[in-house]
Amino acid sequence: MFSVDWEPMENFKIVVFIMAILISLTAIVNRRKFPFPILLVAAGLIIGFVPQLPDLALDPDIVFLIILPPLLYDAASKTSWHEFRTLIRPISTLAITLVFFTTLAVAIAAHYFIPGFSWPLAFVLGAVVSPPDAVAASGIIKGLGLNKKVITILEGESLVNDASALIAYRYAVMAVTTGTFVFWKAGLQFLLVAGAGILIGIVIGYLFVLAYKKITSNPVVETSLTLLAPFVSYLTAEEVHMSGVLAVVSTGLVISWRSPEVFSYQARIRIRGLWDTLIFLLHGFVFILIGLQLPSIIKGLGNYPFIQILGYGLLISLVTIVVRIIWVFTGTGWGKFFKKKTPGVPGVEIKEDDTWKNVLVVAWTGTRGVISLAAALALPLFLEDGTPFPKRHSIIFLAFVVIFVTLVVQGLSLPLLIRWLKIKPQDTTAAEEKELQLSLAISTLNYIDNELPVDMKNKSREQLREKYELLINDLTKEVQLHKKAKQGDAKPRAAPPDDLTKAKLEVSKFQRELLVKMHKEGEFSDAAIKRVERGLDIDEMKLNLKIPKDGPA
Predict the structure, then answer these.
(1) Which residue, among 532, 543, 550, 467, has the nearest Cα to 505 in the 3D structure?
(2) pLDDT digits 0-9 by tens, 185-237
(3) Half-sphere exposure in the Cβ direction for 453 (13 Å, CA)
(4) Which residues contact 380 (CB under 8 A, 6 or more apart)?
(5) Is the pTM above the cut of 0.90?
């Protein structure tokens, strides 16, 4: 992951060291509820200045080819296609129009306030810092209890805006290196690159869907294909010079849309565990690596006055933050959008008094991340005539300052802003889940009574009916509890587990202790013990779903 001249063993040691730091800090984050990205960037900064460690230079190719595709794919696969399609207007406004507007605003500020920044160089800087980052956005808003529509807009924006920024970046760099730029050609090229990238992603997504349908009873292969999909999509699009970013996002959305049909339950369990671990490691490495870059970036500045260029960085950071706030509040349809509930899509109707508050949250959440840093580091060293790329180290440092300021200032202040605005979490997922379970249980009971093809004895049929009647009774109570809580504007309190659930948990605990004893005695084979243990794991997981998250009452 690093472009350093180390022996392989030394390279491996530093990766293990960073992983140890990552896991340790994550435990602290979970305990103290401190923003995950900020702590890891700070840790990277501290580690980077340790004299015994060599400078760790982030290779942009590693970011674009190895880190970016799985992160985008995972984010896209967790995005609801229904909600993404419904919210396409505000998402595209932020992800396309605002990116270009930010690029222009930063270019103007850089050209007129930073000495030596020609228009092409100013546009390069604008393109580098214009897109909020998918990794940073998800890390910052996670666990804040934001409205579902707000989360969809922010995550949808961060999925698409990389493509807009990278296309603008490509043409700005071309203008610097060749000295030529034709606006209308760049506009047509953007439409072609974006449109073709989306089309390629959709085609590859459906090819993978067909492959999944052909695979039966092989969860290992199904899981492995999910690791392959983002890279196939990204590399295919980039090979023909189209948008790999939009290709990956499209592939992820297609596979997510068809996943209930094509994945077996064994594959879904494996995929969820594998991708949760993979994304955790990639997120952590990305944020630590951002912090690790500062020492080498400062060295690259040479004798350039540090305080002066730091001031320029703060100026550009202010421009990116203010431009987003102005754009979001003056954007057409924002107030109208937030005041209504979109028909046909599960959502939350935001109270009229909370409209401007949710708009402010969207306006304030514009953290930059690894994409901006990788784009800056990917700037060519030389122009076509062999002269050094002008202001390259300055652009890299300015990008780092913008990333750090937006992560720290906006990341730390967002939870405070939400508390100050008194925005109450309006996530109705739990209520929807209970309503869905109730609907399934009622339909299942009707199926047992009228359509079940299995010949059953009356006693067995009654036992099966009784199971679903009890379930319907329990779910009906829980749905009514959620409705009452909604009417009273209060959070519903989960019912404590019943005596049967408590007894089953105690039995499960006894069985585990007995299994451990048998394992130590060696009376049974490890293979048999592991199979029984897997069954106990699944049973215990089902039981724990019935227990409130804050523990039994």
Answers:
(1) 543
(2) 767 877 888 899 999 999 999 999 999 988 877 889 999 999 999 999 999 99
(3) 0
(4) 173, 177, 389
(5) no
Helix runs in 179-264, H state only: 183-214, 219-239, 244-262
DSSP3 helix / strand / coil % (the chain, rounded to 5): 75, 0, 25
d(CA 457, CA 320): 71
Percent pLDDT > 70 in the chain is: 82
User: Is there a contact between 414 and 364 (Cβ–Cβ < 8 Å)?
Assistant: yes
Could you tell me which residues come within 8 angstroms of residue 309 by beta carbon, excluding any fewer than 6 positions away? 301, 394, 397, 398
Q: Domain 8-421 has what CATH class?
A: mainly alpha
Which tokens sit at 447? 């199926």
Collapsing DSSP to helix, strand or coil, 486 comes out as helix
**33-to-36, 55, 143, 394, 415 alpha-carbon distances in Å:** 8, 31, 9, 35, 11
Mean pLDDT (whole number) for 457-466: 78
N-term to C-term CA, the chain? 48
Contact in structure between 4 and 56 (CB atoms under 8 Å): yes
Residue 5's pLDDT is what? Answer: 45
Q: What is the pLDDT of residues 270-310, one digit of tens each?
A: 888 899 889 888 888 888 888 888 887 887 777 678 889 99
For residue 401, pLDDT over 80 is answered with yes
**In angstroms, how far is CA 423 from the centroid of its own chain?**
22
Residue 435 token pair: 């309503």
Averaged over 49-53, what is the pLDDT?
A: 72
Report whether 250 contacts 201 (CB < 8 A). Answer: yes
Are the CB atoms for 105 and 168 separated by under 8 Å? Answer: no
CA–CA separation, 121 vs 225, rounded Å? 41
What's the token pair of residue 337? 């959008």
Helices (H), 293-354: 294-300, 306-330, 334-339
Domain parsing of the chain, residue ranges: 8-421, 428-493, 498-553
Q: Is 59 exposed, middle or buried (0-12, 13-18, 19+ CB in 10 A)?
A: middle
